[in-house]
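Hi support team,

I submitted a single chain yesterday and got back a structure, but I'm not sure I'm reading the token output correctly. Could someone confirm the output below corresponds to the sequence I sent? I've pasted both exactly as they appear in my results page.

Thanks,
R.
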Amino acid sequence: MQRTNSGGRLAMLGLVVAMAALLVPAATAAPPEIYPLSSVRRGQVGYGMTTFQGTTPERFEFEVIGVARNFLPRQDIILVKSSDPKLAVTGFWRGMSGSPLYIEGKLACAFSYGWSFNKISMGGCTPLEYMKREGLETKRRSAPGALAPPSTMAEWKRLTPTGAVEDLFGGPRTPWLFATPLPARPAPPTDDTLTAAVPLALGGFNADAFAMMERLFAGYPLQPMRAGGAGGSLAGTEGPTEFKMGASISVQLIRGDMSAAGTGTVSYVDGNRVLAFGHPMFQAGEIYAPVASAEVLSVVASAQFPFVLATPRRELGSLVQDRQSMIMADTKLRSAMIPVDIYVTSKGADGKKLETGEFHVEVLDDKFLTPALAGAAAANAVGHFFPDRDHVTAKIDSLVKIKDLGELRFTDYLYANDGAGSVISGARGLRALAALAFNPYMPAKAERVELRVDLTFAADYGEIKKVNLRRPTLAVGRNVVTVIMDAPDGRTVTEDVAFDVPAAVAGALVQVEISAGDAARLDAAPPVDLPSLLAAFRKLLPGNVWAVTVYIPEEGVAVEGKVIRDVPVSVLDKLAPSSRTPRTQPFRPMARSLQPAKRVIGGSTSLLVRVDPAR
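Hi R., thanks for writing in. Yes, this is the structure output for that exact sequence:
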């Protein structure tokens, strides 16, 4: 009889089974079972998971106080308190929003609201039933990188009330950062003392830029924090490789040489879908932004409201939904950001080079927020290198690359008496971002922004006071006007500006307007579509030239975005009934002369003067 080696066979069988197991994909962990809101009662106890330090969630205990009905529109919250020693010093903190809380081993809610100056660890949490309904059952309409739809006329008129392209830029020294439309602020809770706030860690921002961000996000559940370690790389490659319930999650608005990231906690994971925060960021609905795993550095035990110090680590997906009860991310998606490159150089009043520096960042690609975030980053870059509160003149060359539509280039010459940080609002390349995002014609997407800022610390500026003609009338052909200006040091300075008068106005009374090029009325038909809007942008003049405009008495008309000059009266009469339509509008013809200026020019003036009759 042949004997068998049963032990060897069993060992071989075990090896085969083990190898087969390696070939079978590991099963995805099933999402946790939900504890129903209807079963929540006062006095129940449970535990929560959150990250106190590092990247590993830890357990803490809590007790149910009760349920606050209709805390937000059609949304209840569960009130809880904790006597866990882990929370004895800090209490509940900002950045803990989204921490999952369990009752009887089932997921009940996500911590989301707290009180400031609280003497005990007490707050509110959002039931997972609401979060799943809004986050998992709401269907997406778009995808990362998709073009935003054209703006509404109401939003467009906020940027240009009269419809003129010049209004989009509002004059080179008019504040604009907070004039662009933003997402509607979420409705505050019925109890004003119970609030939600995500710490928005700002890295690399100076005091002025920090104040700008505070003002920008006022009214949203985002609280800018002076926090280092907000992440300096454009896309992190270290840290956790997946989201876990109770671990930290960061939404990145700016990253690179400066950064802005809102950090909260993961509440629920179902495959590639991740719910977090338990309250909104902007309550913007469908919105896309990079989300990353995060490392908690420390919890700051502030007496007013403690908050977490955290740094984004590895990018793991894209924000998809931002709604009343939660934010939702998808780990199968990635959101591209918009590169913004800022180069700064400077010279002293003697013309000698002082310093050179550059910043490279990426900003959130979002119709509402991109212009403001890019503007804040640019102001911060300039203010970082040159915080001097002194007279400064600036040349700013800006470039905006538009998807499938080429580039826009602008040159601005600006002056400020309170330092370099004030001049950045005059960069028309930044203002063009808002005009592109909110144009009412068709989608337009900015792909890259570049700013080159050349500063001179000198008061090389003149504010137009009046003009003097050399003779009481104008001649056909070349004329000269003397412009009298007030300088910042109290002196009066003058420049002679030459311009041409066309023969067509001989003998007529004409209006002559004198201004800097960037303050002159655009010599182009009102836009009727995106191509004509971009064509108008490309006709805007730089600020280092004199623009002398002679308005022609005869009427013209703009038809389908094209100017027809010297239109016969009979034709104007026929066009009159439709002249109020966007595609057929009256247009005042003009003749324009340009001359290089010796300084930055402020203001404008005009006069009525007779032209000599034809000889």
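A quick pointer for reading it: The radius of gyration is 31 Å. Let us know if anything else looks off.

Best,
Support desk
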